[in-house]
Specification:
mainly alpha
C-alpha cells in the first residue's frame, strides 16, 4: 500500500508537468474558481456554527457544569483537547459533505478531464459525446451518494470515539485517512468507468489498491494549506493525477 501511496503522490508532480505541457489550464481554472468560491463560503458558515455546536453539546450533556464543580486542571485540559479534536472531526465532516456536493456538480467536467488526459497519453482525438457525459454524471452521482453514506457511518463512529479521553486523540488521523480514501476513490472511478468497469468492480478494484486512493486524497487536502491557489488547483489536479496513476496499472493488466 505504501508503494501505491508514493505512486499517487508522485502523480501530482506529473500532473503539473502534464497540464503545463498540454495547456489544460482552462479545464483547471473553471472548476477550480467555482470550488474555491464555494469552499470559502462554506468555511465561513462552518466557522460560525461549529464552536456554537460544541458549546451547546457540552451544556446539554452537563459536562461543562460537572468539570466546573470538580475544578480539576487536568480534566479541564482533557476537556479542552477533546473539544479541539471534536472541532477537527467536524471540520473533516464538513469537508466530506462539501466534497460530495461539488463532486456531483462537477462530475461531467471531471469525467471529461480524465478522459481527455488519457486520450492525450494515447495520442487519440476526444470527440464530445453528450450521451456519455450524461452517463458519467449519473454514475458520479450514484457513487458519490454511496460513498457519502458509508463515510458518514464511519465518521459518526469516530465522532463517538473522540469523546473518550486519550483514545479520542487518534480519531482525527482516522477520520483523515477515511476522508482521503473516499475522495481518492471518486477520482479513480472516472478511469474505472471509462474502462467499462461496473460500480461493484470499481469498488473491488480500488479496495485492493487503497494506497492509490489514500495518496491521491492526501495530496488533495495538503494543497488546501496553500490558500486560494491550492484551493483552485486541487480538484482538477486530483483528477489528472488519478488518471496518470491508474494508467500504468491498466497497461499491466491488459
Amino acid at each position: 500500500m505504501l508503494k501505491e501511496m508514493i505512486l499517487a503522490i508522485q502523480a501530482y508532480f506529473q500532473a503539473h508537468r502534464f497540464i503545463k505541457e498540454h495547456k489544460l489550464w482552462k479545464w483547471i481554472l473553471i472548476p477550480g474558481i467555482l470550488y474555491a468560491a464555494l469552499f470559502m463560503v462554506g468555511a465561513y458558515y462552518f466557522g460560525q456554527t461549529s464552536g456554537e455546536f460544541i458549546t451547546w453539546l457540552s451544556l446539554k450533556t452537563g459536562l461543562k457544569s460537572w468539570l466546573d464543580k470538580l475544578n480539576s486542571g487536568f480534566l479541564g485540559f482533557l476537556f479542552t483537547m477533546g473539544g479541539l479534536l471534536l472541532w477537527l472531526i467536524l471540520l473533516l465532516f464538513y469537508f466530506s459533505l462539501f466534497k460530495y456536493v461539488f463532486l456531483i456538480i462537477g462530475s461531467p467536467l471531471f469525467a471529461y478531464l480524465s478522459e481527455k488526459t488519457e486520450a492525450i497519453i494515447e495520442g487519440k482525438e476526444l470527440p464530445f459525446n453528450f450521451k456519455q457525459m450524461l452517463k458519467d454524471m449519473l454514475r458520479g452521482i450514484r457513487l458519490a451518494a454511496r460513498n457519502s453514506l458509508w463515510q458518514t457511518v464511519y465518521t459518526l463512529s469516530i465522532l463517538l470515539l473522540s469523546l473518550i479521553p486519550l483514545v479520542g486523540w487518534l480519531t482525527p488521523v482516522m477520520a483523515l485517512i477515511i476522508e482521503c480514501y473516499y475522495y481518492g476513490f471518486s477520482m479513480l472511478d472516472y478511469s474505472m468507468e471509462r474502462h467499462k468497469k461496473t460500480p461493484a468492480e470499481s469498488i473491488f478494484y480500488v479496495g485492493t489498491h487503497k494506497g492509490l486512493a489514500i495518496g491521491n486524497g492526501l495530496v488533495f487536502y495538503i494543497m488546501h494549506l496553500l490558500p486560494l491557489v491550492g484551493w483552485i488547483l486541487a480538484p482538477a489536479y486530483a483528477v489528472v493525477a488519478a488518471t496518470l496513476s491508474m494508467y500504468p496499472l491498466k497497461q499491466k493488466e491488459q
